[in-house]
Amino acid sequence: MSDDDHHFESKADAGASKTFPQQAGTIRKNAYLVIKTRPCKVVEVSTSKTGKHGHAKCHFVAIDIFTGKKLEDIVPSSHNCDVPEVVRTDYQLIDISEDGFVSLLTENGDTKDDLRLPTDEQLLTQIMDGFKDGKDLVVTVMTAMGEEQICALKDVGPKN
């Protein structure tokens, strides 16, 4: 059997490319962090002194960037944590369907139709009211670890 006969195919996605390692002691407030497999924004960091067993520990309090849930984690400061790759993209809002999906215009002129309206009541109201009033709206979509959600709105003005 030659070396050419071996074919390895990965069926599982460990999400490795969606995150990168960063030493826990270097993560600060407002940074992103993965806690319990969820992408989160750090709202509080406290570091304990080194104890008799060695490591100083970092206590992270963070908010899930998609669900808004508060999560906590304690990690030795010398260990690595997963940091999610968070990307924000602006799209022009074209249409809102009756089942709650939005139609967005991408930079290259294609449409993106696989996103739902946000669950945040205030943002949802702003989008619906602006759309009803015929305004030109640009939504910001946050993407991390294979999930995406509308997280902000810019009012560009009335439609021409």
Question: What does this protein look like?
Answer:
- This protein has 160 residues and is mainly β.
- The chain has 2 domains: 16-84, Roll (SH3 type barrels), CATH 2.30.30.30; 86-158, OB fold (Dihydrolipoamide Acetyltransferase, E2P).
- The chain contains 1 helix and 11 strands, in the order E-E-E-E-E-E-E-E-E-H-E-E.
- The protein has one helix at residues 121-132; strands at residues 19-23, 32-35, 38-47, 57-64, 70-76, 80-84, 86-96, 101-105, 111-116, 135-144, 147-158.
- The strands form 3 sheets. The protein has a 5-stranded antiparallel sheet, with helices on one face.
- Strand 7 and strand 8 form a beta hairpin.
- The longest helix is centred in the last third of the chain and has 12 residues, at 121-132.
Summarize the structure.
8% of the residues lie in helices and 52% in strands.
- How many H/I helices? 1
**Spans where pLDDT lies below 50 across 5 or more residues:** 6-16
Second rung of CATH, namely the architecture of the largest domain: Beta Barrel
What spatial form do the alpha-carbon principal axes imply? elongated
Strand order of the largest sheet: 9-8-7-10-11
Q: Report the CATH topology name of the largest domain.
A: OB fold (Dihydrolipoamide Acetyltransferase, E2P)
Domain unit count: 2
Output the helix-strand order.
EEEEEEEEEHEE
Mean pLDDT, all residues: 86
InterPro entries: IF5A-like, IF5A-like_N, IF5A_C, NA-bd_OB-fold, Rib_uL2_dom2, Trans_elong_IF5A_hypusine_site, Translation_prot_SH3-like_sf
Domain Translation initiation factor 5A C-terminal: 85-154
Keywords: Hypusine, Protein biosynthesis
Family: Belongs to the eIF-5A family.
